[in-house]
C-alpha cells in the first residue's frame, strides 16, 4: 500500500478534511450573511458573489470525488448537446438510486462552470441544516414541504424570482421525490397500477407537480430539459464513506436534451410526457444492465484544478494554526497539555467523523426534523420562513 493510499484510510486525515469543510463552511455562511445588505441595493451583484461563495464550499466535496477518490465520470450523449453545456439555463432530471448521485451531478456542473449557480427543489427541513441549508438559502433555493396545497404559492414565487438570474443555472429535479429502495419501489408500483400506468423496474413513479410547475414558471428562461440517467460500472453501489476512504468508482451518465418547446404547455399533457420519459429511462437502465454501456458517443470532460486548489487554500489557512498548536503542545513537554490533546483526539474517535448530514436526497429528501417557526425574512422579498397552516392533502 502506497503512502497516499494509507493516508486515505486514516481517521485523523478524515477528521482534518471534515474540519476544513465545516469551519470553511461556517466562514462562508458568515460572509454570505454580510452580503445580504447588497440585496436591496444591487441584487445581481449579491447573486454573483454568492455563486462564488457557494462554489468555494461545494467544490470541496467535488474535490473528494475527483482528486481524492479519482472517480471517473463518462458522459453518453451527442456532440451538439455537449457543446451547449454551461451555455444555457436548463432543468436537470436525474434518477435517485445512489448515495452520491448528486455528487456526480455536481462534478459535471463544476466541469462546465455552473456549480456555484446550480439549483435544486429542496425539502424545507434542509433550510435549517447548517452549511447545506444555510448556503442554499443565500442562493435562493426553492424549498418545499411536499404538500402541494401548501407549497404551490411558495414554489411558484421562488421559481419566478429566478427568471432574471445573471449566471447560467442548472436546476436539478429528483422527480421520484426520494431515493430508490426495494420497499419504496414496491409501494410506488402499487400506486402506478392503481393509476393504470406501466410498471417501472429501476425507478419510482415520478411526482409530476414539481416538474410541471417548474417548466411552466421557467418558460422563457430555461432553454431545455436535460434527462440524465446514471449508473456505475461493475454494479457498484457507491457511498460517501467509500469516497472518503478514497475508493474509486466509474460513473456513466446518459444525457438527452429536450428543447423546452417540445414539452406540452398543458399540465396534464406535461405530466404524461414525464411518465413517458421515465419509461424511457427505465429502458436505458435495462440496456445498461445487459450491455454495460448507454447509447451515444462517450465524452470524458477533463477535471479542472480549481476544486483542488480551493481546498488546499482553505486547508492552509485553517490547519496551519492547528498544527502549530499541536507542535507547541508536544514541544513544551507538558504532560497535562499532551494528555488534553490526546483526549481530544480520542474523543473524536467515538463521534461521527462524517462530513455532515447525508445530502444524497437533496431535492426532495432529508431528515425528519420538523421545521420550527421563523419570522418573515426582510431580505428575500416574498420569502416567508414561517410554515403555513398544515393541510392534510398532498399532490403527486
Q: Any overview of this molecule?
A:
The chain has 396 residues and is an alpha/beta fold. Helix content is 48%, strand content 11%. The protein contains 13 helices and eight strands. The protein has an eight-stranded mixed β-sheet. Helix 2 (11-35) runs antiparallel to helix 3 and helix 9 crosses helix 11. The chain is globular and about 75 Å long. The N and C termini lie far apart (51 Å). InterPro entries: Acyltransf_C (IPR032098), Plipid/glycerol_acylTrfase (IPR002123).
Characterize the overall form. globular
Q: Count structural domains.
A: 1
CATH-scheme architecture: 3-Layer(aba) Sandwich
Helix vs. strand class: alpha/beta
Distance between the termini: 51 Å
Biggest β-sheet description? 8 strands, mixed
Relative strand content = 5-15%
Reading off the top of the CATH hierarchy, the class is best stated as Alpha Beta
Q: What's the overall average pLDDT, rounded?
A: 84
Number of helices: 13
